[in-house]
């Protein structure tokens, strides 16, 4: 009888331990800077107001002309080509599974504190979305947006800087509001945008 009780107690403790571990794992996010998984709540608190991926000028050996925007989806980085083997590198958030894409387009329009009209497909997935959201700090497009050709996608800001480095969007490329303002000042309408998947 005591063997049965002991076996039952061990089995229950294993199940309980597993049930406590699984939610903890689900709340972890990958930090590319430390190459480690971290608690999402810790990352969100630490990075509130800024991205964990700093904007910096780097060496760049790509074949693109100055003024081009190169998005490396897998790397979670955007490069604004300066020329002379240099680029400004930004951390970005990209499309989640099922919403990634690649292609070559041009910036067709720029907007400061843009309003947002969620596409019909998105409103079908998330019925409580408004038909339109005016621009402002609570708008998902953030402080600036650069529209990519005739696609539904944009390079835009976000008020959730802890999401930079993650695959969280419906296909748009997001930067912190601080970084998108910096990029916006550099980019011209007509600039080449290349998105690598």
The proportion of strand residues reads 25-35%
Query: Shape, please?
Result: globular
Overall radius of gyration: 21 Å
Total strands: 13
Describe the biggest sheet? 9 strands, mixed
Structure annotation, total helices: 4
Strand order of the largest sheet: 3-6-5-4-13-8-9-10-12
| SSE order, one letter for each helix or strand | HEEHEEEEEEHEEEEHE
Output mean pLDDT. Answer: 83
Low-confidence stretches: 14-26
Structural class: alpha+beta
Which percent bin holds the helix content? 10-25%
Q: What is the terminal-to-terminal distance?
A: 60 Å
State the assembly state of the protein chains: single chain
Q: How would you concisely characterize the structure shown here?
A:
This protein is α+β, with helices and mostly antiparallel strands. It is built from 4 helices and 13 strands.
